[in-house]
Design goal:
The complex is a heterotrimer of chains A (about 160), B (about 100) and C (about 120). With about 160 residues, chain A is an alpha+beta fold. Helices cover about 55% and strands about 10% of the residues of chain A. In chain A, a hairpin with a 2-residue loop joins strand 2 and strand 3. Classes of the chains: A alpha+beta (about 160), B mainly alpha (about 100), C mainly alpha (about 120).
Chain lengths: ~160, ~100, ~120
């Protein structure tokens, strides 16, 4: 029930943001279509932790801003490699342990690894990821540990 | 105004470079990667052109393009992996 | 606050975001051409998809102030932020399954993760 309500609020907020009309008739029609969508999602049994991630902490934007800084740093490192005269790569496929508990946590962790240039998640197994790293610095274990700790802080309330 | 023209020019240069990779290949995955990047750049060009022509409606098109581009990339990769859009996983004996 | 000053500050913020973001996009597309194989090119595309695109969208947001247009730009940014890594992962995973090996692989721990499911071509 909380999930349905959360989805309804999110859908209506999206509808408002995209339409920008505030006439009573249009608002009512928009609200009805959101209600119908929630009904359909409920019938399809889509209202789980994946579709409506209400279990995440509200500090998620803070995590994103930290991630933004990390992305900038590693993008800078990869840019230097691209612009150097002789491209010196040491490509490697490394195993990264994922200490997270929920599926959503795993997804956020894997996506964060992919988002930082220099590392890409290639394959997933229970509790582990196969990560392709461009250089030795990108493959350093301490960066992944820090990221996993921060994801663990936002994954459940 | 001039800022938006400048960024549009930079994006077009970037698109030209991506197109070189798209036609040069050599593997299928290079091309899919180039198409995906091309789509991201198209989204940015569309939004920049919305500012240049002062018609914010372009942003709606850009948003749709972002979503369609993602679905298209996934669909292409899924098709070349399973040779079909419908099946979720390969049958066990085929692996 | 003096409106002229606010306008100037906005323009400077946009200019900085555009220069840095545009620079990253140009470097990323140069990398798409210069880097030797698919696996390294994925990282160059990652630069364009994440920091380049987001910085340019943020630069546009400085120009619009607090309007509906800003919301739309933020939504585009959010979509790219979520779909970008997923598409990148899909390309990496597909080329892994297809058995394309990175050039001069230094360390290969695929068997530690996948065990018996490791594709023949990727075994160390």
């Amino acid at each position: 029930m909380t999930k349905a309500l959360g989805l309804l609020v999110a859908l209506f907020a999206l509808w408002l943001a995209l339409s920008g009309y505030f006439k009573a008739f249009l608002l009512a029609v928009g609200f009805l279509s959101c209600l119908f969508t929630v009904f359909l999602a409920r019938r399809m049994k889509l209202l789980d932790d994946e579709a409506v991630p209400l279990q995440l902490r509200l500090t998620l934007p803070l995590y994103w801003s930290w991630l933004g800084g990390e992305i900038f740093k590693s993008a800078w490192a990869v840019s230097k490699i691209i612009l150097s005269r002789n491209i010196a790569l040491s490509q490697q496929l490394i195993a990264v342990e994922s200490p997270l508990k929920t599926d959503m946590g795993h997804v956020i962790f894997a996506n964060s690894i992919t988002l930082t240039p220099g590392t890409v998640t290639v394959e997933a197994a229970p509790g582990k990821f196969l990560v392709h790293a461009l250089t030795d610095e990108a493959a350093g274990a301490e960066a992944f540990g820090e990221m996993a700790r921060r994801v663990a802080a936002v994954e459940t309330r | 105004m001039y800022m938006f023209l400048a960024i549009t020019a930079a994006l077009f240069v970037s698109v030209a470079l991506v197109l070189v990779r798209l036609f040069a290949g050599p593997t299928l995955y290079d091309r899919v990667l180039a198409v995906n990047t091309f789509g991201t750049l198209t989204v940015l060009i569309l939004s920049a052109l919305g500012f240049v022509t002062e018609r914010p409606d372009f942003l709606d098109i850009a948003m749709l393009y972002a979503l369609v581009n993602f679905v298209g990339t996934i669909a292409i990769l899924k098709f070349f992996r399973y040779r079909s859009f419908g099946r979720l996983r390969p049958e066990p004996e085929e692996r | 606050m003096d409106p002229v000053l606010v306008d100037l500050a906005r323009n400077i913020a946009t200019a900085i975001a555009f220069i840095v973001g545009g620079g990253f996009i140009l470097v990323g597309s140069l990398g798409l051409i210069r880097l030797p194989d698919v696996w390294s090119r994925i990282h160059a595309a990652g630069i364009i998809d994440t920091i380049g695109a987001e910085l340019i969208l943020i630069g546009m947001m400085f120009q619009t102030g607090l309007t509906q247009t800003t919301l739309k730009l933020a939504l585009i940014g959010l979509f790219l932020f979520i779909t970008g890594p997923t598409a990148t992962h899909a390309v990496a995973n597909a080329s892994f399954i297809a058995g394309i090996r990175p050039d001069r692989l230094k360390r290969n721990e695929s068997e530690a993760v996948l065990g018996e499911d490791t594709p023949e071509e990727m075994k160390a």
